[in-house]
């Protein structure tokens, strides 16, 4: 089938593209990155179509939607910490642009929209693990906008009959995460190590997250391709809680470099505990085995070192 | 104290103004209606300050916020049925304008923001009665935007320490509801009767609503004046469910005119059942007695007839 991946050169998007190409589908990527510098898709040259455009360019977006069966929407405005400072970015770039895209997808006859939401923020400050039935109560503009966008997508499903799959993803990490980004603690720590800088560890043993390797995210999100007529909301995490201090231990044990860091109290923009019960989704993947944390961290580290060597301008 | 009422010439707003003036506070109204035609505030001439402006006029809005202790925000973009057709109106006019106001209120040093949300839409299609703990799941753009705005208000509370009271109101009715509006079934039916036209009744005995007389809404919302330091989310309804067909019976019995109507199936934009358990709020009003439905409908009818006579151009 014809699969459009918005933000397909990005971190999550490019891994999803890899897996969907492997499955034999026709993939179109819509991304703001110029095709010639779309490094995360270099290895797929000639095998996918890349359309270059800004998400705000409604005309380019509409063209990319023509003839597509399903669209994965990986274009995100910002991240929890930045959104904490300016909620308007989330309103305009997450909510409004996404709703415009849903509208265009309906008009283009797309059968299903897949929306990656945030398991780490939509449930807010409650005791985890969270199921999909846990009441939502986001408190950061990032989480508020993600939930609002989910609800608008379900509105389009109700009114126009377009199918809508929502994945509330844990804390993804892995190769290809943007360098210089401030999202993804594992990525941020590793960059600091490579730069020989000290990094900051916010929180204590009560700060629990559900870290999930990016290829696991991609693999599990291909579930949406199985049936273009169904609409579901799924949690997408490993179900295993790892405290920030345990993560630090694994980090120190796995890296072939000595990290320098300082432990500070939790920030108000951070959740305390966030672990996802994903049994609803995993029921479609019997016997599924997640990439173990140590293995994932090692692969992420090797990738980041390789990119630092290949593109010295990267930092 | 100094009380600003945004949309203070409107239906809910003007009744709140009445009550707050009675309680002896200094009231400023910000409304798009020119003071000389602000009919719902005519009787308060000289006792309140009226600032004329559009909600989108950030400068006029900022000026009105200066020196205020508390602001009641009654400016709404639209209503559930209209929002069903165009979600962008809700994003821009409800979410974005409200967040801009919260931002301005913080900057102006306002101590509390009071936001009238919608008990009829934020809980969505679930079995009522709803408590404030019932998981929210709005399905109309109107309800989605109301909930999102609630959450952004709580974000400003968390980050800036401004107090925030949210009232999730049932189906308010009563004198002064806008003529020619399509919001408020009681109002719509009465206008049709006055015009000698047939009206449409959507739904059956399963369509249950929590109709609340507008002075009850105003009285109960004055709770926010008691303590400018507290922040709460309250349901605001009578707790009594009335089916659309029972409402029709009361209507026929109470009006001194013969209504013509047709009963049609429920619309997809409508909720099925929506009754609010408001015991959290009523705990602050021991022995509170609501205006009974018959009495409220009679008063609403007399008011509408009087307005039709006084302003023949009204329709």
What's the arrangement of secondary structure elements?
Two copies of one chain form a homodimer.
Chain A: E1 2-6, H1 11-22, E2 26-31, E3 49-52, H2 58-65, E4 70-73, H3 80-83, H4 87-108, E5 112-118, H5 141-160, E6 163-169, E7 171-173, H6 185-195, E8 198-202, E9 208-209, E10 211-213, H7 214-221, E11 232-236, E12 242-243, H8 244-254, E13 260-264, E14 273-274, H9 279-282, H10 293-310
Parallel strand pairs in A: 1-2, 1-4, 2-3, 4-5, 5-6, 6-11, 7-10, 8-13, 9-14
Antiparallel strand pairs in A: 9-12
Helix pairs in contact in A: 1-7, 2-4, 4-5, 6-10
Helix-and-strand structural type of chain A: alpha/beta
Distance between the first and last residues' Cα of chain A? 38 Å
User: What topology, given as strand order, has the largest sheet of chain A?
Assistant: 3-2-1-4-5-6-11
The major beta sheet of chain A can be summarized as: 7 strands, parallel
Return the string of H and E elements of chain A. EHEEHEHHEHEEHEEEHEEHEEHH
CATH class designation of chain A: Alpha Beta
Biggest contact: A-B, 28 and 28 residues
CATH superfamily of chain A: NAD(P)-binding Rossmann-like Domain
CATH fold-level assignment of chain A: Rossmann fold
| Proportion of strand residues of chain A | 15-25%
Overall radius of gyration of chain A: 19 Å
Instruction: Give the proportion of residues in helices of chain A.
Output: 25-40%
Annotated CATH architecture of chain A: 3-Layer(aba) Sandwich
Overall residue-averaged pLDDT value of chain A: 93
> If helices are DSSP runs of H or I spanning 4 or more residues, what is the number of helices of chain A?
10
Low-confidence stretches of chain A: none
Backbone shape of chain A: globular
């Amino acid at each position: 089938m014809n699969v459009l991946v918005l933000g397909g050169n990005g971190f999550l998007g490019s891994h999803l593209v890899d897996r969907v190409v492997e499955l034999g589908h026709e993939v179109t990527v819509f991304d703001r990155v110029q095709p010639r510098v779309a490094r995360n898709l270099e290895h797929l040259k000639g095998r996918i179509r890349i359309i270059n455009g800004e998400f705000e360019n409604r005309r380019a977006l509409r063209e990319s939607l023509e003839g597509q069966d399903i669209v994965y929407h990986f274009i995100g405005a910002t991240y929890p910490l930045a959104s904490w400072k300016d909620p308007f970015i989330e309103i305009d770039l997450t909510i409004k642009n996404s709703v415009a895209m849903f509208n265009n997808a309906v008009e283009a006859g797309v059968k299903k929209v897949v929306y990656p939401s945030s398991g780490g923020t939509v449930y807010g400050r409650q005791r985890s693990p969270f199921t999909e039935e846990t009441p939502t109560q986001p408190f950061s503009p990032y989480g508020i906008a993600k939930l609002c966008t989910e609800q608008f997508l379900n509105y389009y499903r109700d009114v126009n009959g377009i199918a809508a799959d929502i994945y509330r993803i844990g804390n993804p990490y892995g190769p290809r995460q943007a360098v210089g980004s401030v999202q993804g603690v594992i990525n941020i720590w590793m960059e600091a190590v490579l730069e020989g800088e000290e990094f900051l560890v916010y929180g204590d043993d009560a700060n629990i997250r559900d870290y999930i390797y990016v290829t696991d995210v991609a693999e599990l999100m291909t579930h949406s391709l199985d049936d273009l007529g169904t609409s579901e909301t799924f949690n997408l995490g490993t179900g295993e809680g790892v405290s920030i201090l345990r993560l630090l231990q694994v980090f120190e044990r796995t890296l072939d470099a000595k990290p320098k860091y300082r432990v500070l109290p939790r920030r108000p923009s951070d959740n305390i505990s966030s672990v996802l019960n994903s049994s609803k989704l995993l029921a479609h993947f019997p016997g599924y085995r997640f990439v173990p944390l140590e293995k994932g961290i090692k692969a992420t580290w090797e990738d980041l070192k390789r990119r630092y060597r290949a593109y010295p301008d990267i930092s």
